[in-house]
């Protein structure tokens, strides 16, 4: 009798697994990147986005970073981490309780790109399309970040 139950259990698992549809994404497998140059307070910077799409066409990761110069040293905002010094500013804006550093805010955008499988969720709260309206936990000016992601995703479209 145990053999019959074991066989039925294996058959049931096989049936469930084989009938579960595999989600297909809208992109070609690969790693895609692009960048956007911009000027802030007279200094030129570059924002870069890297998108990884798996064999099923699904976005599995999104990486965004931006060049930055602090104290005469050229680096990136992610490398600076807490030393970038945005937490107090974002706290004063009032949208993020206790504030959040740049890397924490950009991680919210990166996660949203993956969870939403693209940029259809983006809406802006200003005419210049710099302030994201659709993401809580983000006070940073996001136009170059979204543009870099959009350009990378355009390369990945089927």
Question: What brief labels describe this structure?
Answer:
24% strand, single chain, 37% helix, alpha+beta
Biggest sheet details: 4 strands, antiparallel
Helix/sheet category: alpha+beta
> What is the H-and-E element order?
HEEEEHHHH
Please tell me how large the radius of gyration is. Answer: 21 Å
Shape annotation? globular
Number of helices: 5
Q: How far do the termini sit from each other? A: 51 Å
Q: What portion of the residues fall into strands of 2 or more residues? A: 15-25%
Number of domains: 1
Instruction: Please report the total strand number as a whole number.
Output: 4
Mean pLDDT value: 86
State the share of residues found in helices, binned by percent. 25-40%
Low-pLDDT sequence parts? 4-19
Strand order of the largest sheet: 1-2-3-4
Overview of the structural elements:
With 158 residues, the protein is an alpha+beta fold. The chain has one domain. Helix content is 37%, strand content 24%. A hairpin with a 5-residue loop joins strand 2 and strand 3. The termini are far apart.
Ordered list of secondary-structure elements with their pairings:
Blueprint: H1 2-19, E1 30-40, E2 43-53, E3 59-70, E4 73-76, H2 77-80, H3 87-93, H4 102-116, H5 143-156
Antiparallel strand pairs: 1-2, 2-3, 3-4
């Amino acid at each position: 009798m145990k053999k019959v139950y074991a066989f039925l259990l294996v058959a049931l698992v096989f049936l469930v697994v084989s009938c579960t549809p595999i989600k297909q994404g809208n992109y070609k497998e690969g790693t895609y990147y692009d960048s956007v140059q911009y000027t802030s307070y007279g200094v030129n910077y570059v924002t870069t986005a890297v998108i990884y799409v798996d064999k099923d066409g699904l976005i599995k990761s999104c990486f965004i970073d931006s060049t930055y110069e602090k104290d005469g040293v050229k680096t990136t905002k992610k490398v600076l981490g807490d030393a970038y010094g945005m937490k107090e500013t974002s706290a004063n804006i009032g949208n993020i309780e206790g504030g959040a550093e740049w890397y924490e805010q950009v991680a919210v955008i990166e996660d949203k790109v993956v969870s939403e499988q693209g940029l259809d969720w983006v809406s802006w709260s200003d005419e210049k399309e710099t302030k994201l309206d659709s993401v809580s936990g983000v006070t940073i000016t996001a136009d170059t970040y979204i543009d870099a992601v959009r350009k990378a995703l355009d390369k990945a479209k089927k």
